[in-house]
Structures are given as structure tokens and as C-alpha cells.
Design goal:
The complex is a heterodimer. By secondary structure, chain A is an alpha/beta fold. Chain A contains 14 helices and 21 strands. Chain A folds into two domains: 241 residues, FAD/NAD(P)-binding domain (3-Layer(bba) Sandwich), CATH 3.50.50; 200 residues, Glucose Oxidase, domain 3 (2-Layer Sandwich). In chain A, helix 1 crosses helix 14 and helix 6 crosses helix 12. The chains are: A alpha/beta, B mainly alpha.
Chain lengths: 519, 157
């Protein structure tokens, strides 16, 4: 057994190469990797997690300006783009890179998979255990660990309240959501670090447990390859960021009996491809869904100051049949200003209306799909995404609904997420505006939920991993993150990723001896 | 924290705005060349100008320094995206209003016209990317934030 380590080992401070051993090595410390690591470490296994990003303590993250958070903990400063094919918008896909992964960047939303979406998993994909009853114990375990609580109505921002007024008038009232918070006072900047450290991201909810159980975590360590032969992995190889100016420096090699890949929906398939674990015709890197999201701003006569209150506090699934979920949201004032039309005096005049701006978002329960490709010119993947006709229809439906709801609440002016549209709308002009004729590629879209790129399934020909999360045709390589989610969810996936990780880790724990022996 | 950043050069001494609770958040090296930051400044002068002219120089000085730190953190792809998008704005936008010049060679009013002209072309995604990066940093300057009424009460000591 290794010596007990009680804190994160920062790879960038290491001198010389590292040659390590573990029962289980996990690549990635986000909602999947950290949860799985904790369960396995608490069962007595020697677990090592390798994380590409830095370890930034929550108190430091919570004191950062938003742009400092972006540059430090968001992959590529949040500038990753999925290239739209055909009449599909380019989608800005944001992910975390740091100890805690994308769980650091969420608004805290914790929702279970709607039953209507979960049912086909067992019925059509053969995932017999993934029923509401089958998933319930894993959800319950995670909800307790991350302290899921409902956002009180009084913590809703004025922005959300106004949307709620309009939604009620139109007959689709919003409902409070659950979030992983403890002691939240509604600072409205959950995804840029909580000043109160009240958001129970996995660095707060699971990392202390993981370390207390004897788990080891190395940050600043880029894994470039899973080492394997004949379907059996023997560990991973990579580099520490301990070179000059934190560039790649000394090599790191880990020998392990089980490898878990948990780098997220874009980087897990990339690592498998780099490692030669995605043979021609495999499903690795395909079937990507992203929950294309967009927002609509509305100007009211009254002061709104939408950054006061919970960043995300309410939603409505009344339009699930249209494949669109409306979700409360408020983004930093600097980003709102960036997406306002115009330049110079016209931009500044609109930016000065910020205190009167309300906002609500929507996301499409998408069919996609997209593909993750190896990039011949760099180490970040190339991502392409093609919307289906249904996705495009849902996108326009969502924008229309958001606008109508704000006008029902008394909004005076609407800002639409359409590139190159230098006009704003009142209620009449919005009704007349032929939104549905706007090319889909002109919609400003973003995504925080890359899912399904190594999807779970019962059939090796149409999925990437088996129902227990094991990569097909391998004996001891598992996946444990958003990549395995079989379909788009229509709701934020954080809780489901953690529940799936819990399930995969518990099954692995129960079968560890036989898997290790076979490997 | 932001006020200190606005009024002092970054340093590693006491009160360094890039050091939070003993944790040095600074990039190991600036991520943009002087030429690239100068291009960004020329765009920002147009983008954030008002009827009274370009924004105060101290805000732009601050933005230049912070942008260099920002891009010192992000990977090659992020830097390339910024350089390409700001390059498109700087070199191509003037052509769209019939001027053979860089953006810096235009007066404020023409810079604004050029940027808005680019927004009406298929290159508007490039404009959005460049504008987003510049806005995200620029509006964190306390005076710029105050100008648009963005008080972040939770972040005040």
C-alpha cells in the first residue's frame, strides 16, 4: 500500500519523471472520475486520479474575477467551438479543466432524468437496469453526498421572477429546481466560483472523502495514452506540466490493473482514439449530443439587476414534447454586453441598460449528432455537429417561447440570439419577425453538456461501452463520465453523470478481483 | 481586488492583484505579443467609444495587461482564435467601408462603421468571438463596470 497522502500532489512542482503504481488509475477528476475514485478508494482499493488542470482551492476560485476563472479553470478560456455542418450553428462548448472538472463550472442544477427520456433506454437500447427504479438508489446516494436542496422562491433573481410572471400568464408556470448547495446566499455567479464556497462541486463534496480514504490525486498531468495489449490495459502514460513556463515536461507512467477514462464528452473519445482503442467502425467519438442552448434578453422599465439571487433557480419542462427545456440563467454583465448588437455608442447605450435586463435560457433535447475527431495539428479535438430538422425546429420554438413569455411579463424590448441582427424588438415587431426563416447557422448557441460520444448500450455494434461502462473489446478499460450517457437528456446532466459513475464504480468494486485477475 | 488591479502594475509583492490568498493566479508568461495587444486596443477604442470619443486610456492600459495574462493561460488554439478574429477585424473591416487602411488608421466614427459592417457579413461569428473576449476583460475594470451599472455586491469586501 502507498503512504497516506492528505493533499493533492501538484505535478507542476514535481522534479523528474514519475513512475507510479495503483490498483485503479482514473484519468480526469470531474463529476465522473472523482465520484468513481471515491467509491473505489473507500472500498479499500489503491486509486490514483490524474488531472490535466490545476488544483485551485474553492476559496481562491470564489474570489476570482469571472475572467480569471475563465482563463484558469475553463478549457481554452471557454473558446472551444463545435463546427456546425449544414444549416447548424457553431456551438461554443465549455468544459472545466482543473481538479473538479466541469462540476466547478455548473450553476449547481441537479435534476434526475425525466422518465419519458429514461424509459427508451431500457426498452429500446437494452439497458435493462437503467429504469427509474434501477437508478433511484444511485441518485439518492449522490443527492445526499452533494446536498441537493430546492432553491427557495425568495432566492430567485428578479430576472427569474419576471419570467415566472409571464410564464404563469401563458399557462406554463416555472418550477423551482434542486441544486447542490449548502449555505448559498444567492450571489449569482455559481459557475465562476462561489464566494461562500456553498456550491458542493466534487472538489468539496467528494475530494476530502477520496483523500481521507487514501486516494491519491495528481494535478497538472496530461495523459496522452492508455497502454494496452490484446484488449488488456496495463496503465497510462503522459507528461507532467513541470517544464519551463508550465509546459509539458517530465514523463509520467502509471501501472494499474484497471484504467478508468473520465475526461468528459470530448476528451474521453479523444484519449481512446490516441491510444488505438477506437478501431475503424467503432462508435467511439460518434453520437455526440450537446444540448444546444441559447438565451433571450429582455429590457424592462423597472430595475432588474439579475445578478442578485441564484444564478439558476427555476425551469419548466412543459415543452418537453417539443424537445425544449426553459431554464433560468443569468450570465455576467460583461458577457451580456458582449452579445448586445452594435459597436461604439450604440453598443454602449445598450450596455448601460444592463441593470434593466432580464434573461432566461433554453436548451434543446437534441438528436444531433456530432463527432469528435483527432486533430492532426494539435492536442485539442476537432468537433463537428449537425442538427436534425427536429433540433432546429425546437431551437426556434424555444426562442419564440422565451420572447413571448417576457412580453407577457411586460418587457419593453427583446434582444434575440441571432448573429448580425442589429435590431431589437417590441412585442408587435417580434410577432411579425419571421424568426423561423433565419438560417440555423446564425443562431448564437452554446453548450455545457457534451454527452454520448462513447455511449452505453447492450450491443457492441451500436455503442461504445457495455451496460457496466466497460469499453467493448477490452477487459479492464472503463468509461465514467458524460461520454457514456446513451442519449441527450433534456435536463442538466451533472447529477446523472454522478449517479452513473456511482453505479459503474460500485459494479466495478464488486467485480474488481475477477477483472484484475483476468487482466 | 479589481481596484488594485486598475491602479497598479502587476507585481508579485504584497497586495498583488493576481495573488489571491497566497495563490498566484498569474500566467507564467504573457500570451500576446505587443503587436497583438495593440491591435486589440485599436478595436477596443472603436468598440467602446461613445459620443464623446474613445474610452479613457487607463482602462485600455488595464485591458491590455489583463488580456496578455488571459492568453498566457489558454492553449495555442485559444490564442490562434483570438489572433485570427482580431486580425480579421483589424485588417478586413476597413475594406468593407471602402477604406484601404488598418482599423487603427481610421477615426472613431469610421472604426465603428467598419466593425458594424463586418457584423453584417458571414464573418460575424469572428466579430462575436473577438468582441466577447474584449468585453469580458474590459467590463471588469471597476470604472467600466460602474458605467454599465454592473455592481457585484457579493464580491465587495
Amino acid at each position: 500500500m502507498h503512504e497516506a497522502v492528505t493533499e493533492v500532489v501538484e505535478g507542476r512542482r514535481q522534479k523528474g519523471p514519475a513512475d507510479l503504481r495503483a490498483d485503479v488509475v482514473i484519468v480526469g477528476s470531474g463529476a465522473g472520475g472523482m465520484v468513481a475514485g471515491t467509491i473505489l478508494a473507500e472500498s479499500g482499493l489503491d486509486v490514483l486520479i490524474l488531472e490535466e488542470g490545476r488544483y485551485v482551492p474553492a476559496r481562491v476560485h470564489g474570489a476570482m474575477r469571472q475572467s480569471q476563472s475563465l482563463r484558469t479553470l475553463w478549457r481554452d478560456g471557454a473558446m472551444t467551438l463545435a463546427l456546425g455542418l449544414g444549416d447548424t450553428p457553431g456551438v461554443n462548448v465549455t468544459m472545466g479543466v482543473g481538479v473538479g472538472g466541469s462540476s466547478l463550472l455548473t450553476g449547481g442544477v441537479c435534476l434526475r432524468i425525466p422518465e419519458g427520456i429514461l424509459a427508451p433506454w431500457s426498452r429500446e437500447l437494452g439497458l435493462d437496469e437503467l429504469t427509474p427504479e434501477g437508478m433511484d438508489p444511485y441518485y439518492r446516494e449522490v443527492e445526499e453526498a452533494v446536498h441537493v436542496e430546492q432553491v427557495p422562491v425568495e432566492m430567485q433573481s428578479r430576472s427569474t421572477q419576471l419570467f415566472g410572471i409571464g410564464a404563469k400568464k401563458l399557462g406554463h408556470p416555472i418550477r423551482p429546481i434542486g441544486r447542490n448547495t449548502k449555505g448559498c446566499n444567492g450571489c449569482g455567479r455559481c459557475n465562476f466560483g462561489c464566494p461562500e464556497q456553498a456550491k458542493m462541486s466534487v472538489d468539496l463534496a467528494y475530494l476530502p472523502r477520496f483523500l481521507a480514504a487514501g486516494g491519491r490525486l495528481w494535478s497538472d498531468c496530461l495523459v496522452s495514452r492508455v497502454v494496452h495489449r490484446g484488449g488488456t490495459a496495463s496503465g497510462v502514460k503522459g507528461r507532467l506540466f513541470n517544464g519551463p513556463n508550465r509546459t509539458r515536461g517530465d514523463r509520467v507512467e502509471v501501472h494499474a490493473k484497471v484504467v478508468i477514462v473520465a475526461c468528459g464528452g470530448l476528451h474521453s473519445p479523444l484519449l481512446l482514439k490516441q491510444s488505438g482503442l477506437a478501431p475503424l467502425g467503432s462508435q467511439v467519438g460518434r453520437n455526440l449530443t450537446v444540448h444546444p442552448g441559447f438565451r433571450v434578453f429582455a429590457r424592462f422599465d423597472e430595475p432588474v439587476r439579475g445578478w442578485r439571487g441564484a444564478m439558476q433557480s427555476a425551469y419548466t419542462d412543459a415543452f418537453e414534447h417539443d424537445a425544449v427545456t426553459l431554464m433560468s440563467l443569468f450570465i455576467p454583465g460583461s458577457v451580456i454586453a458582449a452579445t448586445m448588437p452594435g459597436a461604439g455608442a450604440s453598443l454602449m447605450r445598450r450596455a448601460r441598460s444592463l441593470p434593466n435586463i432580464a434573461m432566461f435560457g433554453a436548451m434543446v433535447h437534441d438528436e444531433g449528432p456530432g463527432t469528435v475527431w483527432r486533430n492532426p495539428l494539435g492536442r485539442e479535438p476537432v468537433v463537428t455537429y449537425r442538427m436534425s430538422k427536429n433540433d432546429r425546429r425546437a431551437m426556434f420554438k424555444g426562442i419564440r417561447l422565451l420572447g413571448e413569455t417576457f412580453f407577457a411579463a411586460g418587457a419593453k424590448e427583446l434582444f434575440l440570439p441571432v448573429l448580425g441582427l442589429d435590431e431589437t424588438f417590441d412585442a408587435d415587431s417580434f410577432r411579425r419577425f419571421p424568426l423561423e426563416d433565419v438560417p440555423g447557422r446564425r443562431i448564437e448557441c452554446s453548450s455545457q453538456h457534451p454527452l454520448g460520444s462513447v455511449q452505453m448500450g447492450a450491443d457492441a455494434g451500436s455503442s461504445g461501452v457495455d451496460p457496466d461502462g466497460k469499453l467493448w473489446d477490452t477487459k479492464n478499460v472503463f468509461l465514467c463520465d458524460g461520454a457514456v450517457i446513451p442519449t441527450s437528456l433534456g435536463v442538466n446532466p451533472q447529477l446523472t453523470i454522478m449517479a452513473m459513475a456511482t453505479r459503474i464504480a460500485q459494479k466495478l468494486r464488486d467485480r474488481y478481483r475477477s477483472i484484475a485477475r483476468a487482466a | 481586488m479589481t481596484e488594485a488591479l486598475a491602479t497598479s502594475e502587476p507585481s508579485r509583492g504584497e497586495g498583488d492583484p493576481y495573488v489571491i490568498d497566497g495563490f498566484d493566479t498569474r500566467a507564467p508568461r504573457p500570451g500576446l505579443s505587443r503587436r497583438a495587444t495593440a491591435r486589440a486596443r485599436a478595436i477596443a477604442e472603436g468598440l467602446f467609444s461613445t459620443e464623446d470619443g474613445p474610452p479613457p486610456a487607463d482602462r485600455l492600459d488595464w485591458m491590455e495587461r489583463d488580456l496578455a495574462d488571459f492568453f498566457g493561460h489558454v492553449g495555442l488554439r485559444g490564442r490562434v482564435i483570438f489572433l485570427v478574429t482580431t486580425g480579421a477585424l483589424y485588417y478586413l473591416a476597413p475594406l468593407l467601408i471602402g477604406r484601404l487602411s488598418t482599423l487603427r488608421g481610421l477615426d472613431w466614427a469610421d472604426r465603428v462603421r467598419a466593425i458594424e459592417a463586418l457584423d453584417r457579413t458571414p464573418l460575424n461569428l469572428a466579430l462575436l468571438a473577438a468582441k466577447a473576449m474584449l468585453c469580458i476583460v474590459y467590463f471588469e475594470h471597476p470604472d467600466a463596470a460602474a458605467e454599465i451599472g454592473w455592481d457585484q455586491e457579493c464580491m465587495k469586501p
